Amino acid sequence: MDRNQRPRSIIDSLGEELIAILTPVSICMFTVVLLVCILNSDPSSSSSASFSSIATAAYSESDSDSSWDKFVGAFLNSLVFVAAITVATFVLVLLFYLRCVKFLKFYMGFSAFIVLGNLGGEILVLLIDRFRFPIDCITFLILLFNFSVVGVFAVFMSKFSILVTQGYLVWIGVLVAYFFTLLPEWTTWVLLVALALYDIAAVLLPVGPLRLLVEMAISRDEDIPALVYEARPVIRNDSRLVQRRVWRERRSSQNDNDDIEDRTNRNEVVRVVRSAEVDEERVGSSERAEISVPLIDRRPDQVENSETFLEGIGLGSSGAIKLGLGDFIFYSVLVGRAAMYDLMTVYACYLAIIAGLGITLMLLSVYQKALPALPVSIMLGVVFYFLARLLLEVFVVQCSSNLVMF
Amino acid sequence: MEDSRSDDSNLNPIRNRNPNPTPNPLSTIISSAQVWPTIDGPLGLTEEASVDYARRFYKFGFALLPWLWFVNCFYFWPVLRHARAFPQIRNYVVRSAIGFSVFTALLSAWALTFSIGGEQLFGPVYDKLVMYNVADRLGLSGLA
Predict the structure, then answer these.
(1) Is A221 a known active-site residue?
(2) Which terminal residue of chain B has fewer beta carbons within 10 Å of its beta carbon, N or C?
(3) What is the annotated signal peptide range for this record (chain B) (predicted)?
(4) Prediction pTM value
(5) Of A221, A258, A327, A342, which residue is the catalytic one?
(6) For residue B99, which of B75, B56, B74, B65 has the smallest C-alpha distance?
(7) Edge-to-edge strand order for the sheet containing A321-324?
């Protein structure tokens, strides 16, 4: 048939993978905006005053301070938070170095349970309270317990239903992002910018903790146990499972050929099982290993437990795009905070973030190594938020109130 | 971005894991007709691992986890559809489905009775059990 003979162009594969990563990000952002709009609709509800966490440790904003005070306070808050994250990431690097992988996996499962049970329960209680839903506490507890335990299974076990795992990861991102949007306003914006800068430093600098982690994972050929969203690997229609852009690093001559073959054979086991046929064209060198991406982030909590969220984008062992859960969270925080102002800023920030994500994916294909996914999107998002709020809104409101529309 | 092709045959001359390196149309037909036990198809579990997983999910579901039973049925949906293909897995999946239905029937009966009956049926106990009051009492809804 003609279809089988026509070589699959870049556009076919690119579109599918872009959509595979844009859909969950969009769903996460949409859900956070929805939650913000529903739960924050009454202005008398508790806003910034009562939410205390590590991100407001240095300074808690109150309405009576001047702008400069607020800015300095927000800056101090962000410094504290970024310092805490750096420490937590270095602890993670140390644990990974000492090969405490089991402990990390257990901790990951435990933190997922806490997030789903505690934060999820709290959001559900808020929703029930808001809508006066007549559910009794026994049913509620059973449902919450079910939800959290299956979530832990989904996160903990490596071979689980892809759809369920992805759904749970997005839901964890939504929960944490909603709680981040409760931070005071100035703190949120300065924190986002600070985290974008931290992300660049941690991934690209040679001394950055995330880069160390990635290099250790490469050298040991393991996956880092952390919360990372992996898009479903795309399978072609003609039943030839082609290795999708599994970018690999050229191993230097440290390893002899047998060793490499053994390692790549282990990686290749999964593909040998899957691929029914072998393509005529072969990849040239066999001395390559795969990289999986991680960058780590930490979620602040009243209880100070750190969790292994990841930020950053890259490719996983099956060639699917991996995006760290920290990216989901902070994109959604940005959009959620924009939603607290008006929906116009939401649209502007959403488009900015998606554009930033597209740019990051392009850079990923060009540079072929782990990249920070936060900086471009966050910078664009923040710029667009302030432009929309300060300049666009005035213009649009004037236009529509005078019935001049585009 | 370019696709990289699999290099299996190049790597396994010693292991001989792939004894038939040349593309064989018959093997294509056979492999494409193979039914995978999980809903993920070729990305999911193999048949041997599936039995283990199905059994474990079924047993864990007894800890008041009907949602786990449901996920079990969802994950092994092809097992339910192709009735003859996987006898061992089907055993556990069918039992999970039954367990899920029974538990859901009981739970929804209770929940519906509670929400529809309301104060008239329960009296003062209603106020003690309903969630938003419990949350108010425990201070959960103030977003401490």
Answers:
(1) no
(2) C
(3) none
(4) 0.76
(5) A327
(6) B65
(7) A228-230, A321-324, A313-315
